[in-house]
Amino acid sequence: MLQLVVTMVLLLAMVPVSAQNYATHAVKEGETLKSISQKYRVTPYSILQANKEIKTADDVKENTILIIPLNGSKPAETKPVTKKEEPQEEEVKPIRFTRHRVRRKETLFGLTQKYNITEDQLKRYNTRLYSETLDKGMVLQIPVYPEIDPDEEKELDFEIYTVKPKETRWSIAHKYGISVDSLLVLNPELDKNTNYLAAGEELKLPRPKGDSLKEQKTEIFTSYTVPPKMTLYSLGREYGIPTDSIVRLNPEIMKEGGLKEGMVVRLPKKREKGNEVNTENYVFYEVKPKQNIFRITQNLKITRDELFRLNPALENGLKAGMVLKLPKEKEKELEVKNALVLDKINLVDSIDVANRPKLVYMLPFRLDKVNVADTQKAEELIKNRRDLAISLGFYTGAMVALDSIKKLGVSVDVKTYDTQLDQAKVKEILLRENLTGVDAVIGPLAAGPLDEVAVQAAAKNIPVIAPIASDSKLSHSNVFFSVPRDVVLRDKMLAYMEKIHKDENVIIIADSTHQVAHDSILSKFPSAQIAKVIDNKSLHLDRFLVQLSEEKENWVFLETDQVNMVSSVTSILNSANISRLDAEETDKQVKVRMFTTSYNGAFEDEAVSKAHLSNLKFTYPSFYRETVDDTFTRAYTKKYDGLLPDRYAVRGFDVTMDVLLKLAYKKNLFETSKYIGLTEYAGNGFDYYNDWTSGYFNRACYIMEYDDLRIKEVEQKNDSKSNL
Questions:
Q1: I need a surface site. Which of 424, 493, 539, 683 has the fewest CB within 10 A?
Q2: Three-state DSSP state, 224
Q3: Count of CB atoms within 10 A of residue 169's CB?
């Protein structure tokens, strides 16, 4: 030890003072690695890195001479480090902020103790405290830093981890026993607005305990005789430890010039192989502050024994931010989004009135075309122009939502622009107006203007809500498509059909433009019969009638957007049902139901008999259900002198209310989308999932059925319940 001290002193003496970025420290009795790092305001890890012969905190003993890295600040040459010359700690950035309203008799010291921060950290993010005293009512921004494990026994060692398919931030955090916040601190390059991890992406993570080279009990090691052609890489892969750990456990490998056949090496015993910790085998839950084991077991519907068996780290205590794994089967009982179990959050009860959302509407009101002085022509234009009817209906509903949120105590700043259905006009608006500080943009309707707004809003990290679009040809990571995609509606319908199917006779009628729907139905019902369509317009009646069963109920899928075809097919099927009713006393009866996975305007046309649809119990998927909120209808008719809301007004109310309640809960729509599941309002539901680079897509939809000339929602068990 004395020789080591002399050598280090000589080496330090040879370093020019002007280039010196280090100090030396002789360890005194009672000092630890942690206390020394705090004294010099550096991390314990940086001290270990500068002193390679010190492997763990236990190696820091009395009279040990340590090199202390000073992060570029200049210490005194030979004098002890004084308070003035004390080096500054490498800045650790807060992971988030909370707000605190100062109460009477509160002090700076009390606040630093309450929030576990220093006075300097408090003042750094509340600069007026440098010149002002703490006063009652003052609102402060409190920085929240990543939690540091006080357990100095943990080895400060890291490795590079390569993300595998079907892994998420939560599954990896669980695997390494850290919080997601800690994972983000270690990997600051990760996007804060999404949870996306790409297979093959590399992350910096603390080396698992099983890989550490601290002194361990000998019984956890095993002797291994190296067979022919075995390499360090393949050996590390077989035992699940990094190659550098193998070398450090067996220094003779380097002395011999590598791993040799017949060499006996010491290795940790193989870990028991269970299911891979990924989204295919588990779902995950992130522990919230102030939760306890009892509350978690109740919320997650799991026994204490099962929870501890899956998560042995709980034996060391429950901590906020800890990621727990749960059986995959829990996905059916709990609300799960991207393999993460969501806590139920009642948005109305979780409003923070301090949040003041700033909203922008961009819709084609076509004020350049509408002459309000000529009422007749204006009404005719509104009736004949779908874009105008949608915009006006949507906006009237949105105004009711703004009234409603105001009654809940939330103030909203709103600006509205007429895009005139013109991309050049949109560019002009964006050039003239500053979107800085805007929390969300609702609109435009058309694809081109929507793309224009999305690109410019993305530069300022502003979310854009597409009122009627379900997709875009371009990739927009900041766009929330509020209308579900066709594939979502189709999958919802087929999943429902598959669940209720017994031995019904399935027949598919599809024109050439609906080949995807045709193939999807056939994949679910391989024994389905295919009806012949003539010239893509009409049904080959004789061949079709032969396909109808007299013994089984007939399920007929009609996939078309042609009004004439919908009208004729529904008439034919209805006649078959009527024939059955006339022949009830005979042995041969035909019973028919009609379905579609591609609901569109053709089924709503006046040429299609609603009575026929009702007789056939016509069933279809829809993102819109009949209005169930009488409160909204009453508010709308009161505001607009007895006028009843159309579906566009309902949609305007629902989209606006959803955005505003989420912003009133947390003033960041990207953040709330991670933790808020299904929300439902007057006629629409919203359950956004992040498709990473392409945007946020709504997957909330309903199965609707005609029954006694009314349209009703088909009740489905085990559906997710709303957060409202």
A1: 424
A2: strand
A3: 23
